[in-house]
Amino acid sequence: EAVRRVLLLGEGNFSFAASLCGAAGTHVVATCYESEEEVSGRGRAAESIRRLREGGAEVVFSVDCTKLKDYFVPEKRQFDCIYFNFPHCGRKAGVVKNRELLARFFHSSADVLTEEGEVHVALCNGQGGTPADQPRREWHNSWQIVAVAAGAGFILSNVHPFKAETIHGYKCTGYRSQDKSFCVEGALNHIFTRSTPLLCFKPMICETELERRKVSFQVPQVLVDKINRGFLERNSNHPVRTVKDKLTADLSQAFPLQNIDYCLSLLHQGHLNGVCHSNVFWIILSPEETPSTEEMSDGLANAVLFSHVDFCRDTDKSGWLNVQEGCHISKQYYLRPSLLPYAQAIIQRGAFLPGTLHVLSGPVFRKCLITPYSMPVFHEMVFVCAVNRGTENSYIQMLVNNIKTSMHSLHQTVSGFKLNINLQEATSFETTELNDFAAFESQLSKIQYFICMEIDTSGSCEKGSCVGIIRTAQYELGSSELVVVFASLNLDLLAMLICGISDWRMLWTSDTRFLSQFPRGELRLFKSFSLYPPSYVHDVSFWVPDGEQFDEVAFHTIARQVSGEMVVSIQLIDSFQQSETGRKSLCYRLTFQSCDKALSRQEVAEMQLLFRKEINQHLRVTLR
User: Fold this and answer.
1) pLDDT tens across 429-480, in order?
2) Hey, what domains does the chain have and what are their CATH numbers?
3) Cα–Cα distance measured from residue 125 to residue 422, given in angstroms and rounded to the nearest whole number
4) Against a cut of 0.70, is the pTM above it?
5) What is the pLDDT of residue 179?
């Protein structure tokens, strides 16, 4: 079995190091900043050093924690754990100097830590500046440890009390660089791990079926890390797949059920009633290249390349894109924002069986404003069934009851909190009360009911908890008058609520620590591996082009794109119009925060600069 290598820095009297010495399978390297001569005079230091050496530990003096790789040959640089208890610049150094010390220490630690290693930093009560500190200092008066660590690519993965009394023989020392103890009551041990790096996404070509042809198209940049992730495929352990499988299995016990397993194209053509052009991702350019003879021999004769158009301005009165003659644009396509058109197409096919519950599922794509429940992509599950007129209400109630039972069964294995699922009439909601999923669905066609879900004891349906909708439509089959029931569920929201995932972006993380919490697809209460991530605020103000309506959805989409979904909030904080010229100025506040990666102040500053450049170029605003 591999030996765990542990590095201790800034030891005052080596009493902490001595308490770790002798642990099975652990090799301790204990260091301090001072020389051996300076340290040996401190109380009990000589005894601790002797114990360490007798126990097989290494003891190294005059080690600068900001230059760690200088003290170890390359083959000895890989440590599994680094401890730095109560770091301090010495004497009366203030918070700024100590932040600088931590910043240089974290950068240095990155050079000598294994990929899955941990960095433990113990700080006195209040120093860290996280909500774990009680009482919590004002941010500017703290060491801002999470933000400082992010600059070196580390995230805070755990924090717990530093209980000095439980460490055998431990005695803190070094108050103002003297052999004096200091107060460690309320001290916290902060445990940091490496973050996955911020990704720089390259243009991506995706292939899909369209009108019995294979077509390729350029993926919108904001979706590059989300297209073709395979969350619903057979070998997936993703919570979204588990929720889908559970619903399918349970509903098949109550209804004749047919999965629509043929390939649903990612691209859709034509109008979706009520949906504005700015809410969809357009793929509208005509073929750019003709397949070669070699490609034809490979069966790719029908392969066509389409490009993505991010921001469209030339629209007709209905809000749809105008296609002008002679511009080589043949047809208008867009990434499917809903599976409803496919569900409607099913009832036109001869294979449609009244009384059978037909099921479709897959990712859908929507441009939307940045809010906590707004997802530019999520997995939709649609149920379609034709029933006799007059029985649709009882059928809907039976369907929702079975969905309730299925979700209650899943949730009971995860958490002891109460789960409420309610069927509410659409007329009981104001438009402003709907989350983004429900609001978009309301544009497609009339909705009869919302399926609402929350996990608490209040029993009320709050904004953000709408996880599904139900609508009906008349249908004639021969002499029979039937009613078709359409039910749509947002599988991502269901998985989030059941597993206690507070941020939709976590579902799409590339960090293996997410899926590792759901072995073999078993749902569990999610435990975040990135605690108290730092947030950064930037403002941007600009003049809106004369005579043009400002496209706020495009504004938010650019923010998503340039930041890699690191913008969590955009607020309009000021609006001004010149009385003389009529020119309008807007000022927005952007809040940047990651849920799974280290995000530094410098990285955010670069994102903000790029954002300013992009809105100037694409939205024709004049920056102030």
Assistant:
1) 666 567 777 777 777 777 888 888 887 645 444 444 789 999 988 877 666 7
2) 4-194 (3.40.50.150), 204-287+330-521 (3.30.930.10), 536-623 (3.30.70.380)
3) 45
4) yes
5) 55
Q: How far is CA 41 from the centre of its chain?
A: 52
Could you tell me how many residues make up the chain? 624
d(CA 362, CA 349): 20
How many angstroms separate the CA atoms of 255 and 553, rounded? 40
Say how many Å lie between the first and final Cα of the chain, rounded: 62
Q: What is the pLDDT of residues 232-259, one digit of tens each?
A: 998 999 999 999 999 999 999 999 999 8
CB 269 within 8 Å of CB 323: no
- Give the tens place of pLDDT for each residue, 495-533: 999 999 999 999 999 999 999 999 988 999 999 999 999
Pairing of strands 419-425, 449-455: antiparallel
CB–CB of 28/57 below 8 Å? Answer: yes
Distance CA 450, CA 446 (A): 11
Nearest-10 Cα torsion for 463, 468, 474, 478: 180
What CA dihedral angle connects 181, 182, 187 and 193, to 10 degrees? Answer: -70
Higher pLDDT, 435 or 88: 88
User: Alpha-carbon distance 131 to 133, whole Å?
Assistant: 5
